[in-house]
Amino acid sequence: MRYWKPAATALAVVLMLAACSAAPGTSTSPSSEPSMAGNSMSPSHSPGTGEIESAAATLRTDLNYLLGEHLILAAKATGAALGGRADQFAAYAALLNTNGTDLGAAIGSIYGQAAQDEWNRIWSAHNGFFVDYTNGVATKDQAAMDLAVKNLTTVYVPQFAEFLAGATDLPTEAITNLVTQHVLQTKAVVDAQAAGEWDAAYAAIREAYAHMQMIGDALAPAIASKNGIDGDAGTAGVDFRVALNQFLQEHLFLASFATDAALAGRADEFAAAGAVLNTNGTDLGAAIGSIYGQAAQDEWNRIWSAHNGFFVDYTNGVATKDQAAMDLAVKNLTTVYVPQFAEFLAGATDLPQNVLEKLISEHVLTTKAIVDAQGAGDVMGAATADREAAQHMRMIGDPLAVAIVGKVPDKF
Fold this sequence. Notes:
mainly alpha
């Protein structure tokens, strides 16, 4: 069963570097061994399902996550810049730069320091060109906008395509097309944000985010093949691992988009972000339903929708400084959502319910930390918590994917 979806479907499929699920400050280079190997949640595998954890599979998962994270952090930075939120722009721009150097370190761990330096040079320049475009849009400076687009399409695209073609032996033309689409889709996000067309902006964010997997999925197998990295990155089980992690990471980032807009009183943006957050949840439910059937899909959707609602309740409590509402929301999250979801997942995967409860509780707490920082006006704290909470989603996604593929291998 294949879970890869083309960008036009806006179904996101991206996940983070293996060490992103470790503590901040740890290495973020692709691991030479599967990131979840030996994890206490991993069940015994059916024959062949170990392929989901191969080094090549982890490379694909790692690369896709950082590429997807790049897109989201860029959209958060441009949205803040265009909204005149200078401190928030600075916070997300800093994380965007860190994401770029994490990607560079991943490349350097395989190809060496010179390749890492060249990646960082090209990648940093392309981030700068998008800042130039955003500034041009903000000031309605058509000449600046045109120059930024020219730099992106005639400097960044060919340089990056040439670099990647040399690193992977993929056709330069094919890479050029993929990278050009990334430029145009990111431009569409900025244009919609500037126009205040929030439904279009969030649709464009999802589409651009999903497209990053088309780049990662092309690069990862080629890198693995060229460098003799063990395993097959293209199996149906790996497709599912990448897809599940992508949806979970996207969930977190869309939730923090929505809570930020709600707490700042940007009602139209909150409504748009909330709508795509709900769609992300039903996309997750459909993925579960395709394996376990309609009843499981319906139960997933019920639990997942309720947990989104509890976070809305908590955010409303923070916004109005209503401690009773905040306490009730936390109670519902920890005593209703956590045990129900852990029980559901334990039944679907045979993973220990107590371990699942711990991971899901950490998701609740890391998401709560974002809302608390947003509500307090702690812009840098909120941005940092945002990335850390999104990184934590892989600690849920990876073991779930391994367990599901191990339990129902015939579905893959």
